[in-house]
Amino acid sequence: MILECKPPKLLKKNFNSRFDCISKTYIYRITTAENPFERKFSWHVPYKLNLSAMKKAAKKLIGEHDFSAFCASGEQRENHIRKINYIKISKHKNIITIEINANSYLYNMVRIIMGTLVDITRGAISATMEDIIASKDRTKSGQTAPPCGLFLKQANY
């Protein structure tokens, strides 16, 4: 059997991998147990996290919103309106995996969302997710989660 390898078709002459992307899917991993093998690949959160409260808060993020409250100060774009298509949260043993798909992201948006979900779940933030979104104020959202748990899963063109 002979396998033929064809070069991929170019989407357009001036294709740009960043600006021509329709949506991206990121995965963020959180571990609730100290594990040296997970140290570089997940955020260790030493608190008990309520998964159902996390899912309830995450549902409020789905849809088109102004995500100014989830944007780091280094963001250069003026338009902070983005559309989150879905957020899936699952747990296997001590690892919580959060998959998020959106049409576009702001600077540190995913990590700030993760930090906010953890802070809401553990009771460090008393505001609801709706209140945080409506405030458009970065000081109302939670901490910025560390980069070690963040992975790009897929880019759709």
Question: Quick gist of this model?
Answer:
This protein is an alpha+beta fold and 157 residues long. It has helices spanning 51-59, 109-121, 129-135; strands at 23-31, 43-44, 63-66, 81-92, 95-102, 150-156. The protein has a single domain, classed as 2-Layer Sandwich (Alpha-Beta Plaits).
Question: How is this structure best described in words?
Answer:
By secondary structure, the protein is α+β, with helices and mostly antiparallel strands. It has one domain (about 25-155): Pseudouridine synthase I, catalytic domain, C-terminal subdomain (Alpha-Beta Plaits), CATH 3.30.70. Helices cover about 20% and strands about 25% of the residues. The protein contains 3 helices and 6 strands; from the N terminus they run E-E-H-E-E-E-H-H-E. Strands 1, 2, 3, 4, 5 and 6 form a 6-stranded mixed sheet that branches. Strand 4 (about 80-90) and strand 5 (about 95-100) form a beta hairpin. Helix 1 (about 50-60) packs across helix 2. It is globular, with a radius of gyration of 17 Å.
The name of the CATH topology is Alpha-Beta Plaits
Q: Count the E strands.
A: 6
Distance between the termini: 32 Å
What would CATH call the homologous superfamily?
Pseudouridine synthase I, catalytic domain, C-terminal subdomain
Proportion of β residues?
Answer: 25-35%
- Which architecture would the CATH scheme give at its second level? 2-Layer Sandwich
Per DSSP, the total helix count is 3
The helix-and-strand class reads alpha+beta
Structural domain tally: 1
- Overall average pLDDT: 91
User: Can you write the helix and strand succession as a string?
Assistant: EEHEEEHHE
